[in-house]
Amino acid sequence: xxxxxxxxxxxxxxxxxxxxxxxxxxxxxxxxxxxxxxxxxxxxxxxxxxxxxxxxxxxxxxxxxxxxxxxxxxxxxxxxxxxxxxxxxxxxxxxxx
Length: 97
What we know:
Blueprint (H helix, E strand, L loop, with lengths): L3 H16 L20 H13 L15 H4 L12 H5 L9
């Protein structure tokens, strides 16, 4: 079951990209405790398995930050790719915690 919030955001984004002739389309594949397993450890292993295969099928991952130490080696450091002033827009307040 997809959460309505995700569906609304994705639909709006896809509508925007189509109207503006931007060649991007977002598809949601939601792995949660409700649709993958009843055990947190298995959920974590499922996501790690997807990451470890090095597949280019998924561009964006959202996950519980408790898994950051486990998954961090699979991701790039955005500080190497984005200007410091851009990153600073997201490093204050709640995002810094």
